[in-house]
Amino acid sequence: MTAAPAAPPALDVRGVTVRFAGLLALDDVSFTVAPGTVHAVIGPNGAGKSTCFNVLSGLYRPTAGTVRLGAAELTRLAPHRIAALGVARTFQNIVTTRGTVADNLMLGRHALSRAGFAATALRLPSAVREQRAHLARAREIAELTGLGAHFDTPVALLPYGDRKRVELARALCLEPRVLLLDEPVAGMNAAERTRTTEVVREIRAELGLSVVLVEHDMGLVMRLADDVTVLDFGRAVAHGTPDEVRRDPEVLRAYLGTGTGTGTAKEGAA
Amino acid sequence: MSDPRSVLRRRAALLPPVLLLCALPFYLDAFWLRIGLFSMAAAVGAVGLGLLSGTAGQLSLGHAFFLAVGAYGYVWLAGEPGPGLPPAVAAVLAVLLAGAAGGLFSPVAGRVKGIYLGVATLALVFLGHHVLLTADSVTGGFNGRSVPPLEVGGFAFADSGPELTVLGVPFGAEERLWYLGLALFALTWFTARGLLRGRPGRALAALSDSETAASVMGVHVARYRSAAFVVSSMYAGLAGVLLALSFRRVVPDYFSLALSVDYLAMIVIGGLGSVAGASAGAVFVTALPLLMTRYADQLPLVATPGSGGGAIGPTEASRYLYGAAIVVILLRAPDGLHGLARRAGARLRRRRRATGPPGTGAAPIPAAGTDPTDPTDPAARAKEHTP
Ligand SMILES: Nc1ncnc2c1ncn2[C@@H]1O[C@H](COP(=O)(O)OP(=O)(O)OP(=O)(O)O)[C@@H](O)[C@H]1O
Ligand SMILES: [Mg+2]
After folding, report:
1. Spatial separation of the C-alpha atoms in residues B134 and A156, rounded to whole Å
2. Helix (H, G, I), strand (E, B) or coil at A26
């Protein structure tokens, strides 16, 4: 049940273009997420970061270009097939479903479990056993993400920061090889930010997965990311390590208009 | 998601209502038993619709069609003209037939969602009604067909066959069917609650909340939508068989759009997304009009049948009262009878806690399945056996 420690395959984005009724949301974007790294995608509001995630998770079909995970071409697959390959994501605006934290996390176990309608309806021992095993793992993940005390609490009753963490835990329940995090700390206070940063660092060290991170909090990006891709108006304007990107004149222009200065945190007005 | 002790306690809380339901045929006369039987059949169908519309968020106005497939399927399969199969086999096949009919609709059910599916299923009811009227050789046309009684291993769920007396109470068709209905309702309760708490139920609930979230978590959206439709149709088929057996005659006009709407009313009144709620709603919607028609003459302003005059007749009065009751429930308890019962239970527990420790023994837990509308007053009326 524990995640296979084998390194995930590389995630390769090649020439992806997404057009919405005349608006070019992504324009020939390419980047590669090396196995087991944290790859940040940053850029101003409306740059196309979330659109990029929607392509990676199969919700949008690009006008042109491909996304590959190892040998699999994700751009041909439906979202549930991509999930089954071990690609999990969170959403910028929290999208949880009804029920308790446990219910939400168990949804994350969906792709890893088998019980169908007949076996579940008749409560066959196989289905009962499977459910019990996955529930135990979901509880572990809840502990890992600091949600242990809220395991049986309805999600709707939780404060914002906890709900945001439910999404992270739900994605982890997929035992992903690639984890896509869309602004995981947006709207959180300082303590919550630190905590989530720690969790991301831990899971990456323990589970060895690749993380694609969209975040406006530059401090977090600089601390966590191995590589950074900068998007501006749908185009990838810079690639590199956090330090390289911070000094890149293109990036300074995208973020600050023109002029100099340090790349300060820019808050997503989500 | 709960420890074994609380599971045990929940099971124990189920025992008194089950014993009560088993004892009722010894005290109630045929009129009440028939109401109970119709209610149980309706509950089976309502639980099915609840899975589809309450849990998966897929509106269906076609439930009457699948009830008809179950009812007519049984009558044809077990009857003459028809293959004349053993009735028990015919009953099982009728349920599967209803599921298959739901499956045939799956290209639509898998892709079309919410209220659009509601409109699409509307077509099924009209199509079904038309077929029932015109396919005379199978359905008996406008006059319908009489229903062959169910027989299992030589035991007939009807007045025919060897007489049966249990503890001094003669067991006629109503008493026997009561236990059949109870068994099928128990099966429905067991399976539907299993589904809702298991992997498929969670996937369906998630699907109705956010198709996006469900799909990126690995739920095959179209397949689960279709499956919900098939499962719901099978419960409808089972309800159809039970209704046919209770009515002893099936006629096309019963399976109209109004019946579909009644089932929607059941799950809304009972509270969406809960098996107990759907069952309570089914009892409410089924029993109330029957009771009001029967006791209408004791209500003020209602004319006795045949007396004419300006006052409204008992049938209209029962419809008005029924409508008013629905409005009151929806205003007072938007989450239906289930929500009402849950809140009442919570208040009761709080008050008990406030008045001190409960002392010895387990405090009675208000069972989730307790049915606030169950017309039970067994002590008040003597059992009269009318053949
Ligand atoms: N479904 C859609 N239909 C039409 N336009 C869209 C759609 N989704 C996104 N867009 C547009 O594409 C552009 C990129 O949007 P996207 O959400 O990817 O930006 P972002 O980089 O995530 O921004 P933010 O930092 O505000 O989250 C925006 O101009 C947005 O309005
Ligand atoms: Mg975004």
Report:
1. 52
2. strand
Percent share of chain A, pLDDT over 70: 92
Report the residue among A16, A17, A20 best suited for mutation to probe ligand 1: largest number of ligand atoms under 8 A from its CB.
Answer: A20
| Domain encompassing residue A186 | 11-86+176-256
Sequence-separated (6 or more) residues with CB below 8 Å from residue B205? A97, A98, A99, A103, B55, B56, B196, B273
Residue-range definition of the domain harbouring residue B222: 25-356+365-385
Q: For residue B214, list chain A residues with Cβ-Cβ distance below 8 A.
A: 97, 107
Q: Is residue B378 part of a domain?
A: yes
The residue to mutate among A18, A19, A29, A50, having the most atoms of ligand 1 within 8 angstroms of its beta carbon, is A50
ipTM of the complex: 0.88
Query: Has residue A241 been placed in a domain?
Result: yes
- How far apart are alpha carbons B10 and B200 in whole angstroms? 23
Ligand 1 pocket list (CB less than 6 A):
A 20, 23, 25, 43, 45-51, 92, 268
Q: Is residue B9 part of a domain?
A: no
Number of domains in chain A: 1
Pairing type for strands B169-170 and B165-166 reads antiparallel
Model confidence, pTM: 0.86
Say how many domains are in chain B. 1
**A221: which residues sit within 8 A by CB, 6+ positions away?**
A40, A42, A213, A215, A228, A242
Closest CA of chain A from B95, distance in Å: 14
Report yes or no: B239 and B41 within 8 Å, Cβ to Cβ.
yes
DSSP class per residue in B59-116: --S-HHHHHHHHHHHHHHHHSTTTT---HHHHHHHHHHHHHHHHHHTHHHHHH--HHH
Task: Residue B221: list chain A partners with CB under 8 A.
Answer: 80
- In angstroms, what CA-CA distances link B321 with A179, B270, B281, B374, B376? 57, 18, 16, 17, 20
Instruction: Of A49-63, A242-256, B269-283, B353-367, give the lowest mean pLDDT range.
Output: B353-367
With respect to residue A221, please indicate whether it lies within any of the assigned structural domains. yes
Cis peptide before B81 (omega within 30 of 0): yes
Please report how the helices B173-197 and B221-247 are oriented relative to each other, as an axis angle in degrees rounded to 10.
Answer: 170
> What one-letter code names the amino acid at A190?
A
Q: Nearest residue of A to residue B220 by CA position?
A: A80
Quote the minimal CA–CA distance from B340 to chain A in Å.
19
Contacts of B322 (CB under 8 A, 6+ apart): B288, B289, B292
Q: Is A140 among the domain residues?
A: no
The helix-helix angle for B4-23 and B173-197 (nearest 10°) equals 160
In chain B, what residues touch A115 (CB-CB under 8 Å)?
198-200
Give pLDDT tens digits for B127-170. Answer: 998 998 888 888 877 887 888 888 887 777 777 666 666 676 66
CATH number for position B220: 1.10.3470
Residue A114 lies in a domain: no
Of B202, B213, B217, the CB nearest to A111: B217
Cα distances (angstroms) measured from residue B304 to each of A60, B292, B301: 66, 13, 10
Whichever domain contains A64, its CATH number is 3.40.50.300
The tokens of B277 are what?
Answer: 């709620």
**Whose CA is closest to B57, among B225, B271, B235?**
B225
Q: Would you state the structure tokens that stand for residue B267, as one six-digit string?
A: 């799950």
Rounded Cα gap, residues A246 and A218, in angstroms: 10
**Is residue B127 situated within a structural domain?**
yes
